[in-house]
Amino acid sequence: MVKKTLRRTYRVSKYVIYKETLVDYKEHFWSFLGAFFGIGVIAFLQSKYLLEQENIFLIGSFGASSVLIYGAIQSPLAQPRNLVGGHVLSALVGVTIYQIFPDIIWLSAPLAVALSIVLMQYTKTLHPPGGATALIAVSSPGKIADLGYWYVLSPVLSGCIILLLVALLFNNMTKNRSYPNSAKRRRISDKKHRHPLKN
């Protein structure tokens, strides 16, 4: 019995170590292309069509979103509902908090992030970069603060749509990648991960 358990533990460990250290060059290639073009389109629009003093189309939280939607496409946190919903709801929270407490950063910053997390949890749109989107709304002086609720539409919503369209294109170019990840596929994938040595 002990021998059998040890053998199984060894096989599982070997499998996990193999999977964790496996370098999938094709996967990395498509992740790179998706992120490059997703951020590239937003950066291009910012540099070509916005005045220098209005260069706010490219916000930092889009970089974090790119990690998820191009590099971890099977994650529940990377799905379209989470990407768009998480950012938009967090932007709404951030702007609202800034309207109420415009000059009290020690209160507005933590309140914006904490409330955005709870709202994302409640609406099942949890997307970690959303916390950064809320924080940007309360901590960025100048043009972003002046935008008010327009911040929710642009750069946030418009940027999310660009990232999503690029993700839909590049994440579905091969048969090994599929995005968005349906609930059924997630259940099958979870089952395989829980029982890697069965079948």
TrEMBL record:
Residues 178-199 are annotated as: Disordered. Keywords: Membrane, Transmembrane, Transmembrane helix. InterPro entries: HPP (IPR007065), TM_HPP (IPR058581). Residues 183-199 have a biased composition (Basic residues). Residues 23-180 form the HPP transmembrane region domain. The chain crosses the membrane at residues 28-45, 57-77, 83-101, 149-170. It comes from the Bacteria. PANTHER family: TRANSMEMBRANE PROTEIN DDB_G0269096-RELATED (PTHR33741). This is HPP family protein. It comes from Chryseobacterium piscicola.
